[in-house]
Amino acid sequence: MRRGCLLTAGLLFLGLIGLTWLPFGREPAAAPDPRFYVVNRFGQTQIVVVAPHGDTDELAAVRAAIKHLDRGKFCWLLFWRQADRLLVPTEMPMSDAEADAMLGSYTRNDRTGYRELLLHGREIPLD
To answer: How far is CA 77 from the centre of its chain?
Structure first.
């Protein structure tokens, strides 16, 4: 009987520890817009996969992601296409192949006033 109580208490303890590891406060797995989803985060950097839907193009999907994810005093978003999903980095620094597959980036820094969107190596107007 005593052994069964210890086993139950141990399992309950492990279950409570497991609950503390759940990602409370993070965004839900399903993105609010089907044209993009966040795959990973490295500090303040968010890794985003763009999956244009219907008649929308990549730029429209990137702009939707920026509108939804641009929060705080600093924002850095890195974009990949859905077709290049296997080349999305899982750690930093990223490999040359992962960097070559990158669609673009968005950077905003309120402290310096810097704001830039690059796609395919070209600067895109934000307004």
So the answer is: 8
CA torsion angle 39 121 84 94 (round to 10): -60
- Specify the length of the chain in residues: 127
Write out pLDDT tens, residues 98-125.
999 999 999 999 999 999 999 988 898 8
116: helix, strand or coil: strand
- Alpha helices, H only, 21-95: 58-69
Integer distance in angstroms from the first to the last C-alpha of the chain?
71
122 CB-contact burial (10 Å; exposed 0-12 / middle 13-18 / buried 19+): exposed
DSSP 106: E
pLDDT reported for residue 3: 53
Instruction: Note the pTM of the prediction, 2 decimals.
Output: 0.71
Quick one: DSSP state of residue 29? Answer: S
Q: What is the pLDDT of residue 21?
A: 32
Sign of the four-CA dihedral 118, 113, 49, 95: positive
